[in-house]
Specification:
The protein is built from two helices and ten strands; from the N terminus they run E-E-H-E-H-E-E-E-E-E-E-E. By secondary structure, the chain is α+β, with helices and mostly antiparallel strands. The chain has two domains: 33 residues; 113 residues, no CATH class. The strands form two sheets. The protein has a six-stranded antiparallel β-barrel. It has a two-stranded antiparallel sheet with strand order 1-2. Strand 9 and strand 10 form a beta hairpin. The longest helix is centred in the first third of the chain and has 26 residues. The termini are far apart.
């Protein structure tokens, strides 16, 4: 008989002890092989990058609080996204139809679009940039905050080179 009355395999090895040893060996092998895989993979380093954000259709008093040097954080996750290095604004324009049927863009008094350039640290992955635990893509929307304000922003550009606004 393979297992005797005492629960020993071939009369020598306790079946429960055998199962415990096999489980320990299994976990030890997986831990070792996972450690080796992590060590052999290429570690991607953060690079300095520049992200242009736009705050759309904001009131004129908002212009006074957005400043170069503001530290911008991701409002949802709370990590530092970057620092504002450039700020520009323009009148918010809306498409309107005139009385003679023409479509024109007209400035709306008291409303503005603000573009800011952030100096960030991130990992480029070909489609966007990974900053901390969040990926940012051109055209995506994100909620940001500083000490003075919280607002929604649209990502207009992400680059490794510092760009000038309104080129």
């Amino acid at each position: 008989m393979i297992i005797d009355k005492k629960g020993k395999l071939f009369g020598k090895i306790n079946i429960i002890d055998l199962v415990v040893v096999v489980v320990i060996l299994f976990f030890a092998y997986n831990a070792f092989s996972t450690t080796n895989e992590i060590e052999s993979e290429e570690v991607m380093q953060s690079e300095e990058a520049y992200m242009t954000l736009e705050f759309r259709e904001v009131h004129s008093n908002f212009l006074n609080v957005v400043e170069v040097g503001d530290v911008v954080k991701d409002s949802v996750r709370g990590f530092v996204l970057g620092e504002i290095i450039e700020v520009e604004s323009e009148s918010y324009k809306e498409m309107v139809t005139t009385t003679d049927g023409k479509v024109e863009y007209k400035s709306i008094p008291g409303l503005y679009n603000i573009q800011v350039v952030l100096d960030i640290q991130g990992i480029f992955d070909g489609n966007g940039v990974l900053v901390q635990s969040k990926r940012y893509y051109i055209g995506s929307e994100t909620r940001i905050k500083t000490e003075d304000y919280v607002t929604d922003a649209f990502v207009l550009d992400i680059s490794k080179n510092e760009g000038e606004l309104n080129d």
